[in-house]
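Appendix C: a fully annotated inverse folding record. The material below is reproduced so that readers can follow the format used throughout the book. The structure is listed first as tokens, followed by the designed sequence.
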């Protein structure tokens, strides 16, 4: 009790420290406490790498004066004996919105211009925003964080693409903001998400956000050089904040890499909020050199009791549950700097348990402490005052009864700026634990928790929980619980003394008034652990099991990335797509990723020989118009989005890559959608399953962009919209206006005079200079003619009309202009402007001399483009060889790739397919799909992988059942459907993966 009043005195005296000395006082005599406080005989973690046993921590005026075993304690020092206790530096959370209310989404129609003047042209760019203007200290949230061990948090306004500056706040419930604000400007914050405060429609996609950030940085540089006469408070603030810590909210591995890509272009090193899935591509994450802010938001096990529901779970979701807790360990092992945050947790109480889980999975305790102390302190430039308990640091520290990273350890107090926050009363006798007792021959189990803070008890008898209430004060326990007879509402009352740490002794009063002696014996820890778990057959209690990480990390991924091989196919029917035509009983040698030889009786001592007798070998299928393997397809916030690129939003984990390989597809052009007349730039990729997003893109890829005509761009089916254009005439005017501006821009650039770099104009100027090529979404002949005339007016050519379902009407004009046609095989009448489409379209254009391709524009159809090509044999009597070129050589020509792919010719890339039958037969299967000599799909290996997937899912289901058996929380199974993207698909979430 003496200790209790001594500590109360220390707490009361500390209040006066927080009054600013130049403020007038009318409360009587001003008296500041300047006494020292010494914490003696403790085990002190001065830093994650320095631990002193039996040491003293001396503090004064909210700062550490000294620490060590030989600290001189001044006179009049308040001394607190912490024998058997441990001291740690308090934790730091680098990424919060503490004390800030997130704005609600504005309702109303989309707007196409800014709502502010004197600021940047886009409302979602708000670097001038200062979090302190909206900050309000929240004692309730602060107490929750204090109970977790946090002493300081960095907070920001969580709204917008550029969110303004953050501030560092001490969680001092007994001070005012004058003392709590450690630093009012610590960081500048970014994200891919729009502001809720504005309805400005741009950006409407992740790639739009990336393009906006790039243009913003270009404009900031131009503004800083004094080239803009008008005032822009946003750009001024952005430039002023350059020296601050730059924090980017990514939220996933893919978005982390995208954010880093933006930063790299402007020599900015972001500190990035991750998503917990960084382990999937650990080498790529390391290459960013970014410090990762890790949320500890681990998934719960799924409730897999129902076999039918369990069968709907994807392997990737099951792996995420199993692999995520290993993420911190893997980052640490690979030398990646990281810090932890409570951000994203539905309940902050799960932070500690999830941290313990990460440690169970191999994260070292030293790394865990660094991630919570010295790493965030260093990032904030506050290592001299935060993160350690060295002299001069803030007196921010934790007092525990042992190792803070052990589950049973109690956090007693969290001192912030020299002020104590009591989490658990360490003057109280700790009676937490599991007990057993008997009453009238009935066995009971008692579990007590929170005895030093918020006492709680549960009592069971024969596995039945009995309603229990508990109070605990001055070593006396009062319990009230229901009797085991559930048919009666009767209660047993218990009064027991807890002075003996190993038992509770007193009396029990039964419902009939009879009194019995009460003696509850505390179980030893080992016995308590056994009591808490029912062992299942097959339970594994050795090293934690981690599902293997594959490339990509989902079903059908490779445990090791496949490598190029020397392959010799013997006795195949070879479709060359060259003047040699179709060759019977012919061999094909693949070496160094190229087609090395084609002929008869070939041999190579290093080759893997494959008997292709009765089978067919072709060049890989090329899909000129696809929307698979991308996280975004449309940026429809403006009538031109030439500044965006699909290359920014490639999804290397799209299962459609594998499915397309199974259909013999090796290359695709991922086109922007048709939300606006001038769309975004394309990504032309090879389907190298397991490679990173960047490695999918063709080396020295030809430059393409998507344009669009018709109903989509004039928004015929949008009821409420004011975006120009709203008519086909307006679409034409958009093209003329933008190319006129681009021409003027290009002339200024080439003149050598200073110019503002405009990414959109740069792209359009590339078209004028024949450096970038247009693939245009088109249907109606009048619009097709219009765009060719616009192109001729500006002295360039349209490269490809895609869809082009009225191409048969203008095939002669297309031939004269030099434009190709990439069409559907037999789609018609699926909307009004397609009413005149006919299945003979491809044949008519081909016979007129137009280069014709058959495309999919659909994730399902792309898997059977071999059969789509065959339809041209039926509709128009196209020869089989020419029909096959519609999906191989011709799309290669349209994409300016025919010197590399599209046919089987010595020296070309070894992108080939081995078919079980005639390639256009409905019975044909792709047995092997090879890209640059690497086998990315193998029918036999696919069968083996299916068995391996089945086995792995069974193992994970068993582990989930074990979790449920231990009493851990589970989540219901929810079947997820992959959203297939099309021309008109719009982003719903900017943070989508």
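Designed amino acids, in order:
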């Amino acid at each position: 009790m003496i200790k209790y009043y001594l500590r109360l005195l220390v707490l009361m005296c500390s209040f006066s420290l927080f009054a600013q000395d130049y403020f007038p006082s009318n409360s009587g005599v001003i008296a500041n406490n300047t006494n020292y406080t010494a914490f003696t005989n403790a085990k002190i973690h001065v830093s994650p790498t320095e631990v002193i046993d039996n040491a003293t921590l001396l503090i004064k005026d909210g700062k550490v004066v000294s620490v060590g075993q030989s600290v001189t304690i001044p006179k009049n020092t308040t001394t607190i004996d912490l024998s058997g206790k441990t001291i740690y530096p308090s934790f730091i959370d680098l990424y919060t919105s503490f004390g800030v209310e997130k704005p609600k989404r504005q309702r109303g129609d989309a707007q196409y211009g800014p709502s502010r003047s004197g600021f940047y042209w886009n409302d979602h760019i708000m670097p001038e925003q200062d979090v302190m203007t909206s900050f309000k200290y929240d004692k309730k949230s602060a107490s929750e964080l204090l109970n977790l061990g946090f002493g300081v948090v960095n907070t920001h306004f969580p709204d917008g693409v550029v969110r303004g500056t953050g501030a560092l706040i001490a969680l001092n419930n007994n001070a005012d903001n004058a003392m709590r604000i450690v630093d009012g400007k610590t960081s500048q914050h970014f994200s891919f998400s729009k502001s809720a405060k504005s309805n400005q429609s741009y950006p409407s996609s992740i790639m739009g956000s990336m393009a906006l950030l790039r243009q913003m940085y270009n404009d900031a540089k131009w503004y800083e050089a004094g080239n803009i006469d008008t005032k822009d408070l946003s750009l001024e603030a952005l430039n002023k904040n350059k020296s601050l810590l730059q924090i980017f909210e990514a939220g996933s591995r893919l978005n982390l890499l995208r954010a880093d890509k933006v930063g790299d272009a402007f020599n900015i090193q972001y500190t990035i909020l991750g998503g917990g899935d960084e382990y999937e591509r650990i080498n790529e994450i390391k290459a960013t050199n970014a410090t990762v802010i890790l949320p500890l938001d681990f998934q719960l096990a799924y409730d897999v009791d129902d076999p039918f529901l369990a069968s709907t779970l994807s392997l990737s979701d099951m792996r995420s549950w199993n692999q995520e807790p290993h993420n911190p360990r893997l980052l640490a092992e690979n030398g990646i700097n990281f810090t932890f945050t409570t951000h994203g947790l539905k309940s902050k109480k799960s932070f500690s348990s999830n941290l313990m889980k990460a440690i169970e999975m191999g994260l070292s305790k030293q790394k865990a402490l660094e991630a919570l102390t010295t790493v965030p302190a260093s990032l904030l430039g506050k290592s001299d005052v935060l993160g350690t308990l060295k002299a001069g640091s803030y007196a921010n520290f934790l007092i525990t009864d042992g190792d803070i990273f052990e589950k049973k350890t109690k956090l007693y107090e969290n001192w912030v700026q020299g002020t104590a926050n009591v989490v658990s009363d360490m003057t109280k006798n700790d009676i937490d634990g599991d007990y057993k007792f008997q009453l009238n021959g009935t066995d009971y189990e008692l579990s007590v928790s929170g005895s030093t803070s918020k006492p709680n008890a549960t009592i069971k008898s024969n596995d039945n929980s009995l309603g229990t209430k508990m109070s605990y004060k001055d070593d006396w326990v009062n319990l009230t619980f229901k009797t085991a007879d559930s048919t009666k509402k009767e209660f047993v009352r218990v009064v027991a003394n807890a002075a003996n740490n190993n038992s509770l002794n007193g009396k029990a009063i039964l419902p009939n008034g009879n009194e019995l002696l009460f003696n509850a014996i505390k179980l030893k820890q080992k016995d308590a652990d056994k009591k808490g778990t029912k062992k299942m057959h097959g339970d594994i209690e050795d090293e934690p099991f981690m599902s293997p990480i594959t490339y990509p990390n989902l079903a059908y991924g490779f445990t090791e990335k496949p490598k190029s091989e020397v392959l010799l196919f013997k006795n195949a029917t070879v479709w060359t797509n060259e003047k040699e035509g179709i060759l019977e009983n012919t061999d094909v040698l693949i070496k160094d990723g190229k087609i090395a030889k084609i002929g008869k009786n070939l041999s190579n001592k290093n080759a893997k020989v494959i008997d292709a007798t009765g089978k067919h070998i072709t060049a890989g299928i090329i899909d000129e118009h696809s929307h698979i393997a991308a996280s975004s397809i449309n940026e429809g916030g403006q009538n031109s989005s030439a500044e965006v690129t699909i290359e920014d939003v490639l999804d290397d984990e799209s299962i459609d890559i594998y499915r397309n390989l199974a259909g013999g597809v090796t290359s695709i052009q991922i086109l922007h959608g048709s939300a606006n007349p001038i769309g975004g730039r394309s990504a032309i990729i090879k389907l190298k399953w397991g490679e990173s997003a960047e490695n999918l893109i063709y080396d020295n890829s030809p430059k393409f962009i998507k344009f669009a005509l018709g109903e989509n761009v004039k928004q015929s089916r949008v009821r409420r919209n004011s975006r120009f254009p709203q008519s086909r005439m307006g679409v034409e005017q958009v093209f003329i206006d933008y190319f006129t501006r681009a021409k003027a821009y290009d002339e200024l650039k080439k003149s050598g005079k200073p110019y503002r770099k405009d990414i959109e104009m740069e792209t359009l100027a590339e078209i004028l200079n024949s450096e970038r090529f247009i693939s245009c979404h088109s249907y109606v002949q009048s619009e097709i003619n219009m765009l060719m005339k616009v192109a001729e007016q500006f002295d360039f050519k349209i490269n490809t009309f895609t869809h082009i379902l009225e191409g048969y009407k203008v095939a002669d004009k297309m031939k004269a202009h030099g434009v190709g046609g990439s069409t559907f095989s037999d789609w018609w009448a699926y909307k009004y402007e397609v009413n005149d489409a006919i299945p003979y379209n491809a044949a008519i254009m081909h016979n007129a001399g137009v280069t014709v391709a058959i495309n999919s524009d659909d994730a399902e159809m792309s898997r059977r483009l071999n059969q789509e090509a065959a339809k041209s044999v039926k509709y128009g009597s196209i020869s089989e060889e020419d029909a096959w070129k519609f999906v191989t050589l011709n799309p290669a020509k349209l994409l300016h790739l025919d010197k590399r792919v599209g046919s089987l010719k010595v020296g070309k890339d070894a992108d080939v397919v081995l078919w079980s039958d005639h390639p256009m037969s409905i019975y044909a299967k792709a047995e092997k799909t090879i890209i640059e000599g690497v086998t990315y799909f193998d029918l036999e290996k696919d069968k083996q992988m299916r068995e391996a997937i089945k086995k792995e899912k069974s193992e994970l289901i068993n582990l989930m059942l074990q979790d449920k058996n231990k009493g851990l929380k589970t989540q219901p199974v929810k079947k997820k459907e992959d959203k297939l993207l099309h021309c008109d698909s719009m982003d719903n979430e900017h943070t989508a993966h």
